[in-house]
Amino acid sequence: VPPTWGMTVGLEQILAARRAWLMVTGRHKAEILKRALTDPIGTDLPATYLRKHRDAIVLADASAAALL
Predict the structure, then answer these.
(1) At a CB cut-off of 8 Å and minimum separation 6, what does 16 contact?
(2) H-helix or E-strand containing 21?
(3) Which of 9, 24, 46, 64 has the greatest number of beta carbons closer than 10 A?
(4) Cα separation of 27 and 9, whole Å?
């Protein structure tokens, strides 16, 4: 039975989900969030694959979004 909800699931399940949320908090995550949204899509940073998702939402506090 495929999962119907999860906080930590594999990339395949995330990309197959109807909606995906990426929650990012803290200044220490600012650089990685910037890279997730701008680096080439690939295995170096799996979060880049969320850009291929049909309904992904990024929720970031001001500190995490400081470099955007």
Answers:
(1) 2
(2) strand 20-24
(3) 64
(4) 25
- Hey, what are 44's tokens? 């170096």
Cα–Cα distances (Å) from 35 to 3, 16, 22, 66, in that order, read 29, 23, 14, 13
| Pairing, β 20-24 against β 56-60 | parallel
The two structure tokens encoding residue 48: 């880049």
In one letter, which amino acid is 56?
Answer: A
CA pair distance 18, 33, nearest whole angstrom? 22
SS3 37: helix
pLDDT digits (tens, 9 = 90+) for 48-61: 999 999 999 999 99
Q: 3-state class of 33 per DSSP? A: helix
